[in-house]
Amino acid sequence: MKLRMLAGVSALVLAGGLSACGGDSDSSGESADGRTTIDVWLMRDSVSAQFQKEFVAGFEAAHADIDVKVQIQEWDGIGEKVTAALASNDAPDVIETGNTQVAQFAQSGGLLDLSGKVDELGGGNWLKGLAEPGAYEGKQYGIPYYAANRVVIYRTDLFKKAGIDPVAIKTRDQWIAATEKLNKGGTQGIYLPGQMWYALAGFIWDEGGDLATRSGDTWKGALDSPEAVRGMNFYEQLQALGKGPKDSDEAEPPQAEVMAKGQVAQIISTPGGANVVLSNNPELKGKLGFFPIPGKTAERPGSVFIGGSDLVIPAASGKQDAAFTFVKELTGDAWQRKLASAMSYVPNKTTLADAVAADPGASAMAVGAAVGRATPNTPGWAAVEAKNPIKDYMTAVLTGADTRAEAAKASASITAAMATGS
User: Fold this and answer.
1) How many Å apart are CA 395 and CA 406, to the nearest integer?
2) 0.85 exceeded by the pTM?
3) Is residue 329 within 8 Å of 311, Cβ to Cβ?
4) Distance between the two ends of the chain, CA-based, in angstroms?
5) Could you read off the pLDDT of 178-227 as tens digits, one per residue?
6) Local structure of residue 262 (DSSP, 8 states)
7) Of 63, 66, 68, which is closest to residue 39 (Cα–Cα)?
8) 273-316: pLDDT as tens digits
């Protein structure tokens, strides 16, 4: 799933499709001089035009027999477009897809099984939040491309004034204590809207719970488990330490714009949110910092939802070897390091976290990404997000309804949605 406000890229816009094809090609993609042209779909705003141009040039220089034609796709409506392409005889050769979308496309049988290539691609070190949703029914279809996740963006000046060292905040209890100390006078300790369900998911995972669980071929909502209820209890405790609305999410109103007004000490966001804060209030330049969402213990950071992308190869591609070569290069260590540096993304492997060590926002993301997760890995989950009973559940609890009763209702709604959407 694409996180819309990725670190450092909120203002980047890709140029229209860059083509580096050499010579006329026939319908098979092979030109008169024996070169193979592969068609690649990449998503808008995933990488900058400059990085894309650099990679294509480097790739073609290293692989003289392959030309690359990149087409930029829009996120809106991409699910239907990819589904149609996979069912056609004219599918592209490589597609970038949101990590949580892979199961939806794999279910149709339209993706190439890459399970035999996992070791060759360094799969033992992949971020689980990208790798696990890239697999379906025990087979690997999606190859982790890049990741981004939420961190805490905080006001360094307000923390200093309150005598709080953010580096020392390693646990939830320490986070609550610091937030209580900040939540005084005209300052909100944290601005946490009532329906930020991705943040709730992390708290639930920390407690050992889940949004839904699978038994055989059946998925069932799990918000009513004791572990999930504890996660909601923590969310309620944290949310009360500010004035975030109980009936909307981080987009209504945009939380970064709220923080820019100057009365908010913390928000939970991707690091790119800091750019939005500064664009709305330049006077806060030099006054924003980042730290990973704390976990229950100091030994493990808080779980986070990992957004980002995987690369897939359509089964209908007639140039699968060349397509795999492209995927191997773009997801390999050398280009992953360059991508992380250029875009402030988290690389696809835990062993590459040092690539963002000098970037405060991205390095905070990398800490959480190492223990990050994705939503339940089933095509039916898309139907849950479409109706989103989790948001209604959160609002009900935060406005005084019984947590266990509302959790049971929401879990039943999740179960029904997954049954109809799978």
Assistant:
1) 10
2) yes
3) no
4) 18
5) 999 999 999 999 999 999 999 999 999 999 999 999 999 899 999 999 99
6) S
7) 68
8) 999 999 999 999 999 999 999 999 999 999 999 999 999 999 99
User: Which is it for strands 266-269 and 151-155: parallel, antiparallel or unpaired?
Assistant: antiparallel
Q: If you ran DSSP here, which 8-state letter would residue 183 be given?
A: S
Which residue in this structure is represented by tokens 């229209």? 16
- Taking the C-alpha atoms of residue 149 and residue 164, their distance in angstroms, rounded to an integer, is 24
CA atoms 337, 271, 192, 248: torsion sign:
negative
The total number of residues written for the chain in this structure: 422
SS3 98: strand
Phi-psi region of 113 (alpha: psi -120 to 50; beta: other; left: phi over 0): beta
Report the distance separating Cα 145 and Cα 96, nearest Å.
8
Contact 314, 93 (CB under 8 A): yes
CA-to-CA separations, 375 to 98, 102, 165, 379, in angstroms, rounded: 12, 12, 33, 11
Do 159 and 265 touch, CB atoms closer than 8 A?
A: yes
d(CA 370, CA 198): 17
